Amino acid sequence: MDSVDVIAVVGACGPERLRYAKRLAQLTNRAFFPASRLAGSPDPAQEAAVLASWTDPAAGVVVELPAEVVATELIGAFTDQEERTRLIGLVCVVDAVHLLDDLHRDGYLPLRDAASGIAAPMTARALLTIMQIEYASTIVFVSWEQLPTAELATIMALVSHLSPFARLRMHRRTTEHVQATDPYTPGQSRPGWVSLLNGDFDPHMTDPQVSAFRYEQVRPLHPGRLMAVLDRIEDGEFGVLVRSAGFCRLATRPQVAAQWEHVGQMFSLNPLGDDDRLANDEELLAVGQDLALIGLRLDPDRLAAALDDAALTDPELAAGPTAWAGFADPFPVWQTATDRAD
Where is the CobW C-terminal domain (predicted)? Predict the structure, then answer.
């Protein structure tokens, strides 16, 4: 059975996303499935992949996904169809005028569990938006004509830093043909923060207002002092930190590596695994802090110094984990994936 070539269209702004996806399907003579057709499904990404797999392979498909779709789950759904579908493009439609507002939203929404259809833990809208940008193969800017040239250049450079492998396009009345990429695979390293940590970060566009840097620190972080630094970041003391992600260790939980996840006003630390449960042939996910930070008008030296101040001092480090356990810890209690499985 031949694979069906699929172009998925995502984005935070529904009307612009729908108009673009519909027009793209018309111009490329592809079948079209709108987000409204997927709205009743507990798993829109999986539903879209199934619908696409039964389409005529000769025609191909354009699928519009709702704003709440998780980019990684979308990619997983289309690459898990036993070679019946090939995701050859992930287009993210970005409203250039409102992008920064979208990334600083403080709203949350419940995703649904694919098996039960029951609402799962709340997920930040801003995180969903930025992940769609990060994993896109093509990013299409709409409403860009409303911005002054200098401001538009800054927005485009920021997006290029967030998603350095994506092609950037300006939307015009005539929708341009989306150039197919190599088909997506389950493993993806497209996000800018991943490139920063991998050492191959090379965005196509730059701007004096936009910067990115990597922060490394082997010492665990004092959770109370870290929270104070996060408050200073939110206040804009070091510039506008739009996105930061990576791995970290809290002194009060030194045996657990955590995923650092931040965009706009949203911040979370999610446990990845317990060192005590690693097999003999498994390596540590992270020793200390390894973070990628991307933003506007950042002061990297002062931000790095503030994070260094949150790390354990020489006397604290020498005191050992028993003493660390007594530190004030304002972060939520963790439950690792292994704990949940048990």
Answer: 210-311
Helix axes 300-310, 223-234, angle to 10 degrees: 150
Same domain membership, residue 123 and residue 27: yes
The enclosing domain of 44 has a CATH number of: 3.40.50.300
Judge whether 165 and 181 are in contact, CB under 8 Å: no
Global pTM value: 0.91
Q: In terms of Cα–Cα distance, which of 151, 291, 292, 302 is closest to 233?
A: 302
Residues spanned by the domain of 252:
209-341
Helix axis angle, 71-78 to 44-53, nearest 10°? 30
Residues shown for the chain: 342
Q: How far is CA 342 from the centre of its chain?
A: 29
